[in-house]
Write a structure and sequence with these properties.
It contains seven helices and nine strands. It is of the alpha+beta class. It folds into two domains: 108 residues, no CATH class; 94 residues, no CATH class. Helix 2 packs across helix 5.
């Protein structure tokens, strides 16, 4: 189902037109309940919205900037400190209050075998041994809900990923999204729900059960500031 078809289905369910349920109002509802359903999906499949990305380590550099939506949704950070080395999982910690952030003390206290990191000032700060320049030396996995719809004139299926850094919305839930919007519209306007709308919760649970065992093994790759070796698009911020 594409955006145009979704809008048409919503208006069919609500018995409205573009005059009585404007595109702008439909979009607000669609994006709100798209996130609501995406959250339910994530409860069943924690990795459903994960996106891996790589970035280059720079010699002597410990602080790497990322957009807020990435920093607020980090799942894991792995680092490798030589081109032929293996990635090592970095441990997330709070910013040290009693530790001087100077190179000699950081490198003397931490090792590349067990790196730490913390987030500050819209950036990841790496606590490790000495850092050399390594292409794709950082591997970040972050959580990104399906992209918001910007209009209702699209002809591309909603399940298609809009870019290398955003997810589409699974086709299994398209009708349920339209139904959820219809339920909200009717509730606001004091309208009676249909039999199918009354069964929304049960139908959603059934679809979630089915989706929890679906194949989500496709790899989504993004590039990040500092360079990428994997051909994705950079973040825009």
């Amino acid at each position: 189902m594409n955006a145009t078809q979704l809008a048409s289905l919503i208006r069919s369910k609500t018995r409205t037109t573009s005059d009585t349920f404007s595109d702008a109002a439909v979009l607000v509802h669609v994006n709100t309940f798209k996130d609501e359903i995406a959250g339910r999906i994530q409860q069943e499949r924690q990795e459903a919205w994960n996106i891996p990305a790589t970035f280059d380590l720079e010699a002597g550099k410990r602080e790497y900037a990322f957009p807020d939506d990435v920093l607020n949704s980090i799942v894991s950070l792995e680092l490798k400190f030589s081109s032929d080395g293996d990635y090592v999982r970095a441990r997330a910690v709070q910013a040290p209050a009693d530790f001087a952030l100077n190179e000699a003390e950081i490198a003397g206290y931490h090792s590349n075998a067990a790196p730490w990191y913390f987030v500050r000032r819209r950036a990841v700060y790496v606590l490790s041994g000495a850092i050399a320049a390594v292409t794709a030396g950082g591997r970040l996995v972050y959580n990104a809900f399906p992209a918001d719809l910007s209009d209702l004139s699209g002809t591309t299926d909603l399940s298609v990923d809009p870019s290398t850094t955003t997810h589409g919305f699974p086709r299994e839930f398209h009708e349920l999204l339209a139904r959820r919007v219809s339920i909200e519209f009717k509730d606001i306007n004091g309208m009676q729900l249909s039999t199918k709308e009354l069964a929304y919760d049960q139908d959603l649970e059934r679809k979630l059960d089915e989706f929890s065992t679906a194949d989500l093994s496709a790899v989504f790759t993004a590039s990040v500031p500092g360079g990428s070796t994997m051909g994705g698009e950079g973040f825009d911020y």
